[in-house]
């Protein structure tokens, strides 16, 4: 498959997951973790759609924006993980990495380089996903010590 078809398919999958997550979980529970998950899916779909402008004149701004929005998507997964533990995320993990990625992408000649800022995007995403994993691992340990699992408890609440 060519990159354009793959991007359209990924955007369609993200939108489908968003509809299922929003209608199936968030509207019923109004939980913070499902809100963060829905925001992550919105950002993923938006970033993927922005990458569709590669090869056009709009690539100059669409590519750096797509990189920044993709970074916000990763930050939203961290917000979801923190929400499961009853913690908040704050604004800085959403703004600072995305702004850094946007600036790095702009500096990397996005008009002619479709991979402009790719290194910064991947680095930011790795760090944000590592933070997500760390919080989930910590949450797992906290609930294991208490003899319960949040993953066993939350789905049962949603099904009621």
Count of domain modules: 1
The low-confidence runs, each spanning 5 or more residues with pLDDT under 50, are: none
Q: β content, as a range?
A: under 5%
What is the end-to-end distance? 42 Å
- How does the major sheet shape up? none
What is the radius of gyration computed over CA atoms, rounded to a whole number of angstroms? Answer: 17 Å
Please explain how this structure is put together.
With 160 residues, the protein is mainly α. It has one domain (3-159). It contains 6 helices and no strands. α3 (59-84) runs antiparallel to α4. The longest helix is centred in the C-terminal third of the chain and has 29 residues, at 118-146. The N and C termini lie far apart (42 Å). 33% of the residues are buried.
Give the secondary structure arrangement, pairings included:
Blueprint lengths: L2 H27 L2 H20 L7 H26 L7 H16 L10 H29 L3 H10 L1
Helix pairs in contact: 1-2, 2-3, 3-4, 3-5, 4-5
Question: Which properties best describe this structure?
Answer:
mainly alpha
Q: How would you summarize what this structure contains?
A:
The protein is an all-alpha fold. The protein contains 6 helices and no strands. It has one domain (3-159).
